[in-house]
Automatic annotation (TrEMBL), chain A:
Pathway: Energy metabolism; oxidative phosphorylation
Source species of the chain: Paenibacillus campinasensis
Molecular function (Gene Ontology), one example: oxidoreductase activity, acting on diphenols and related substances as donors, oxygen as acceptor
Lineage: Bacteria, Bacillati, Bacillota, Bacilli, Bacillales
UniProt catalytic activity: 4 Fe(II)-[cytochrome c] + O2 + 8 H(+)(in) = 4 Fe(III)-[cytochrome c] + 2 H2O + 4 H(+)(out); 2 a quinol + O2 = 2 a quinone + 2 H2O
Protein name, UniProt field: Quinol oxidase subunit 1
Cofactor detail note: Heme A3.
Gene Ontology terms describing biological process: electron transport coupled proton transport; oxidative phosphorylation; respiratory electron transport chain
Length: 647, 306
């Protein structure tokens, strides 16, 4: 292989990216060495099994990926801003919309949600950590290995270019001979293992580690949403894993599962992909529903309306999510009866979703609503997501979908679902729980400025796309002629995209500004909130709760505050904690190299990396580690320091 | 905002999808407008409640110290907002099933006529249109008579494509291992945009064709002209054509179906079929596709209503 086949060459944008990657890497290495932070990085982060730190690492990665995917989006909008643009060529555009989709769903939305659930779920149920802390670290490092593997593809070897859904035969070796789709197959397999492990870990955590008195029906809604999400994960992700495995065999080892020849079935890929792909939508949306439930209830200063129906509706949504996959290809010619069935199951999802919308509205009813930044995102979610929902019902109608399918109408719809449904939620959750983790709130003025930029620009960007779709503009089209008349609306959309970019830059600037200037919160409960996580001091000490709280009902912390009762009257005793370990990180590195070598079909190095993975797993299996104890005096001291004199 | 949307939709013929030139597309356009109106109704209810809650219950100086009540929920309210959406979904389901059946079949009023069969097959980034009865073939444009049912039979020589003439009908996939069908009628003469709607690689953006509807006599005349003047399509030339990425318009006085028959209907794979053991469309044009010759009758789609 020649070097110019290995590195992507010929595009100034990519050369620029390479230079900046090298410079940033050097700067990081230099900075770590100069400030003597290598030891700190290793001890406090790379080897940590603390769910809060793992959560923070997930969120940092997700923010980085948000910008990577966001730049992809800006490039796409720039290329289509006017007819016959010559900014990107077809191949480059195809790679960019593919990576935009994969990154935003799998390496932005999912890790952001995993980050929040890592930080918050153990705190909401009164636990000291997740059930399997070391496994949790493995999940993170496998996700990280997968994400990095996917991201280097645009400078080494070329990115996947067959769309995020990678339909066969287009994604087969015959029509996509570069290594791009090998990256797709391998990086998603690696991070997918991590996701699956997270699913198992959190189910066990939520089912087995709740504080005494916290029955299932007393759990905070976010924890409920995570439990149901994890159930979807363990049913849906194996399908993706197998589909990707078959894809890898097709592309690397010459099998014919999805090819055109020898009885391969291209449609099988589409079915497998969406059997996972549709539940995946709910994997990112249900936790969002949970986040909104927490925030709306906190800032309306009311308990969540219709708790039981909120739980039931999520259960129904999760079941229905497995019965709708064929609506992604009504146009495959299954005939009217099959399409009719999937139309009805799809529209049925609108019913439990509507129940949730009305429950949120009635949580606001008779409340006292304060418009903080997290609340603004949550409130903006309702009207915007409802547009996404009703256009979803329109798309669910098989006959009408024959006209919407593959058009910008669809693109508008799923952005109207995923941006308010997932992105607003994680940003809202980020602002809401930030003080819990870091001990100070993000600045409200900057936060609201960013919010208005994001909320307004979002509509400017995506509302025109409904009309573009009805005008006949297909998605994934890198250029169009003047006569089509698509120009003006695309230009409008580009202007919106710039506004979105400004909003997100303000959001990050707010993190920087607030870190320097925001006053520190000593109460641990800056929003006057309701769930158990707010009963701990901020930043949360490593052991979470000095004494395990006793739960007498929903919104336990709220009623403890109102009635002036302590959450527990037990004495502080020594606390058992898991010890740090570097093996999950090393395992992630080994998996990264295994994936990388397989992408290029370098067999000997692949086998060596594969053996390394097995050895690490074996040593982990035979390791005896009983953790350590934090003595009671140390806990008392920490609590006093964090809470001032209140304890 | 949404009233303006309705006005825009009803009055605006620049929206291709809502400017139908035939009964199938008209059914779809009516379905779309009906669903938009229903959905605007839903949006209005949500928005009115939303604005009411936000204005009435916002924190003000005047209600400082107000402690909101504890409310578990209300069973009747919850039944209401479960039942009404169920009714809406039920109405939409009936409409969906009816219209889906309608647009899958030959449009109403045209069932008695014998449809004109046109095979539309895609390769790389071009469309081949074969008229088996007339014995002619075109590339990247298709002429059709008005007021006569047309049965497009779709398949692909490679990637999945989606055949779409938005002013006549919605789209349907063309795949390498089975035939799919689209029934449509053009009721007005004129030129319409047709294209592949399903992303299939580098040349996707330019994979368009013109669909030209003309009166029956004009159509007959065009067919006769083609037969008299256009060259024959030889197997060699066709194979060369398949391997070319982009071409302009072409016209031939014979079809490729004679030496490269289409895949069978309703069978999911083994595109060779019973009668085509050495002439399946994929075996010839390049070395990649060794087809599985014995059709193993995997009746995956036998339930699909053919």
């Amino acid at each position: 292989m020649k070097w110019d086949e290995f590195f992507v060459t010929g595009d100034p944008l990519i050369y620029g990216a390479m230079v900046s990657i090298v410079l940033v890497s050097l700067a990081i290495l230099f900075g770590l060495t100069y400030y003597k932070k290598w030891g700190y990085l290793w001890r406090e982060w790379l080897t940590t099994v603390d769910h809060k730190k793992i959560g923070v690492m997930y969120i940092i990665c997700a923010l980085l990926m948000l910008f990577r995917g966001g730049v992809d989006a800006l490039l796409m909008r720039a290329q289509t801003a006017a007819p016959e643009m010559k900014f990107l060529d077809a191949q480059h555009y195809n790679e960019i919309f593919t990576t935009h989709g994969v990154i935003m769903i799998l390496f932005m939305a999912m890790p952001f949600i995993f980050g929040l659930m890592n930080v918050i779920v153990p705190l909401q149920i009164g636990a000291r950590d997740v059930a399997f802390p070391k496994l949790n670290a493995i999940s993170f490092w496998l996700f990280f290995a997968g994400a990095m593997l996917f991201n280097i593809s645009f400078i080494i070897g070329g990115s996947p270019d067959a769309g995020w859904s990678a339909y066969f035969p287009l994604a087969s070796i015959e029509f996509s001979p570069t290594v791009g789709n090998n990256y797709y197959s391998l990086s998603l397999q690696i991070s997918g293992i991590g996701t699956l492990l997270t699913g198992v870990n959190f189910i066990v955590t939520i089912l087995k580690m709740r504080a005494p008195g916290m029955t299932l029906m007393r759990m905070p809604m976010f924890t409920w949403s995570v439990l149901i999400t994890c159930l979807i994960i363990i049913f849906a992700f194996p399908v993706l894993t197998i589909a990707l495995l078959l894809m890898m065999f097709d592309r690397l080892f010459g099998s014919q599962f999805f090819t055109m020849a020898n009885g391969g079935m291209d449609m099988l890929w589409a079915n497998l992909f969406w059997v996972w792909g549709h539940p995946e939508v709910y994997i990112v949306i249900l936790p969002a529903f949970g986040i909104f439930s927490e925030i709306i209830s906190t800032f309306a200063r009311k308990n969540l309306y219709g708790y039981t129906s909120m739980v039931m509706s999520m259960v129904v949504i999760s079941a229905l999510s497995f019965l709708v996959w064929a609506h992604h290809f009504y146009t495959m010619g299954q005939g009217a009866m099959v399409n009719g069935f999937f139309s009805i199951t799809t529209m049925a999802i609108a019913v439990p979703t509507g129940v949730k919308i009305f429950n949120w509205l009635f949580t606001l009813h008779k409340g006292r609503i304060s418009f903080t930044t997290p609340m603004l995102y949550s409130l903006a979610f309702i009207p915007i997501f409802t547009i996404g929902g009703v256009t979803g019902v329109m798309l669910a109608m098989a006959s009408a979908d024959y006209q919407y399918h593959n058009t910008m109408f669809l693109v508008a719809h799923f952005h109207y679902v995923l941006i308010p449904g997932a992105v607003f939620a994680v940003i809202a959750g980020f602002h809401y729980w930030f003080p819990k983790v870091f001990g100070f709130r993000l600045n409200e003025r900057l936060g609201k400025m960013a919010f208005w930029f994001i909320a307004i620009s979002f509509n400017v960007t995506f509302f025109p796309m409904f009309f573009l779709g009805l005008q006949g503009m297909t998605r994934r089209t890198y250029t169009y002629s003047e006569e089509t008349g698509f120009g003006p609306l695309n230009l409008l959309s580009m202007i919106g995209a710039i506004g979105l970019a400004i909003g997100f830059i303000l959001l990050v600037y707010n993190i920087y500004w607030s870190t320097r200037y925001q006053p520190r919160d000593k109460t641990g409960d800056p929003w006057d909130a309701r769930a158990l996580e707010w009963s701990t001091p901020s930043p949360v000490p490593v052991y979470n709760f000095a004494v395990t709280p006793k739960v007498k009902g929903r919104d336990a912390f709220w009623f403890a505050k109102k009635n002036n009762e302590p959450l527990s009257d037990e004495k502080i005793t020594k606390i058992h904690m898991p010890s740090n370990t570097g093996k999950p990180f090393v395992l992630g590195v080994a998996f990264f190299f295994l994936g990388f070598f397989l992408v290029f079909s370098w067999w000997t190095p692949s086998i060596i990396a594969g053996i390394a993975v097995l050895i690490i797993l074996a040593t982990m299996s035979f390791e005896r580690d009983h953790g350590y104890y934090i003595p009671a005096e140390e806990i008392v001291q920490t609590e006093q320091k964090l809470r001032g004199d209140t304890v | 905002m949404f009233l303006s949307v309705v006005l825009l939709l009803s009055g605006c013929s620049s929206l291709t999808v809502l400017d139908p030139k035939g009964p199938a597309a008209r059914t779809l356009s009516d379905t779309i407008i009906f669903s938009i109106l229903m959905m605007i109704g839903v949006l209005v209810v949500v928005y009115v409640l939303y604005i009411y809650m936000l204005t009435k219950y916002r924190a003000r100086k005047s209600n400082e110290g107000y402690e909101p009540p504890h409310e578990e929920g209300n069973i009747w309210l919850e039944i209401t907002w479960t039942a009404i959406p169920i009714i809406i979904v039920a109405i939409l389901s009936v409409v969906t099933v009816k219209t889906t059946v309608a647009v899958e079949n030959v449009p109403e009023g045209y069932e008695s006529q014998k449809p004109l069969v046109i095979y539309a097959s895609s390769s790389n980034w071009k469309w081949h249109f074969s008229y088996p009865e007339e014995g002619i073939e075109t590339v990247n444009y298709v002429n059709i008579p008005t007021h006569r049912p047309i049965e497009f039979r779709l398949y692909s020589f490679g990637t999945i494509t989606s055949f779409w003439i938005p002013q006549l009908h919605g789209q349907k996939y063309a795949m390498s291992d089975m035939i799919t069908k689209l029934n449509m009628v053009a009721e007005e003469p004129g030129s319409m945009m047709g294209r592949n709607a399903n992303f299939n690689g580098e040349g996707f953006a330019h994979m368009e064709f013109e669909a030209l509807a003309m009166s029956a006599p004009e159509y007959e005349k065009w067919v006769d002209d083609v037969k008299a003047t256009a060259p024959e399509l030889t197997e060699d030339e066709f194979n060369k054509l398949l391997n070319t990425a982009h071409v302009g318009r072409m016209t031939f006085s014979s079809t490729h179906l004679e030496f490269s028959p289409p895949p069978e209907e309703g069978h999911h794979h083994g595109s060779g079929g019973d009668h085509s053991s050495d002439e399946s469309p994929d075996t010839e044009h390049d070395g990649h596709h060794g087809q599985d010759e014995h059709d193993n009758h995997d009746e995956q789609d036998s339930h699909d209503g053919h």
